[in-house]
Amino acid sequence: MSLLLGLVLATTGFHGVVIRGPTSPVCREGQSCTEPAVGTVLVFSRSGRVAGRARAGAGGRYVIRLAPGYYTVRTTVAPAIGRGLRPRRVHVARGVYGRLDFSIDTGIR
Predict the structure, then answer these.
(1) Contact, 85 vs 104, CB < 8 A?
(2) Contact 97, 74 (CB under 8 A)
(3) Residue of 8, 27, 66, 102 with fewest CB within 10 Å of its CB?
(4) CB-side exposure of 93: number of CA atoms within 13 Å?
(5) How many Å apart are CA 20 and CA 101, to the nearest integer?
(6) What does 1-17 look like in DSSP terms, one character per residue?
(7) Dihedrals φ, ψ of 33, to 5°?
(8) What pairing do the DSSP bridges indicate for beta strands 13-21 and 97-99?
(9) Number of other CB atoms surrounding residue 53 within 10 Å
(10) pLDDT digit string, tens, across residues 33-70
(11) What is the pLDDT of residue 1?
């Protein structure tokens, strides 16, 4: 890997949290209806090839380094119901290591 490419990869990408919800059919005031999606694996692909994976750890937090560009994102387990992961398409800007949170719609209503 060239030094320049290594510097770009070291300074671009995302960090954030992955949450899932609703977690019950009835959400009550004062109680969260979402929870961290601990263990969820985010798969980032570009041009039909997997560019990276990130596993949500404690609190649903994840970190991934990616080269600048557009990526589609999915999880390794598709939900049986619900709209699934949002957002599904992301853009990594050159020189930006930004926050991007993901949500998984469980379809519980």
Answers:
(1) yes
(2) no
(3) 27
(4) 6
(5) 11
(6) --HHHHHHHHH-EEEEE
(7) -110, 15
(8) parallel
(9) 13
(10) 889 999 999 999 999 999 999 999 999 999 999 999 99
(11) 43
Greater pLDDT, 22 or 93: 93
Residue type, 99: R
Tokens 């699934």 appear where?
A: 84
Q: Categorize the per-residue pLDDT at 29 as very low, low, confident or very high, splitting at 50, 70 and 90.
A: confident
Angstrom CA distances, 48 to 20, 54, 70, stand at 26, 18, 12
Question: pLDDT tier at 9 (50, 70, 90 boundaries)?
Answer: very low
- Measured in degrees and rounded to the nearest 5, phi and psi for residue 16 equal 170, -155
* Cα dihedral across residues 86, 73, 40, 99: positive or negative: negative
**One-letter amino acid of 15:** H
| CB-CB contact of 9 with 66 (8 Å) | yes
Domain ranges of the chain: 3-105
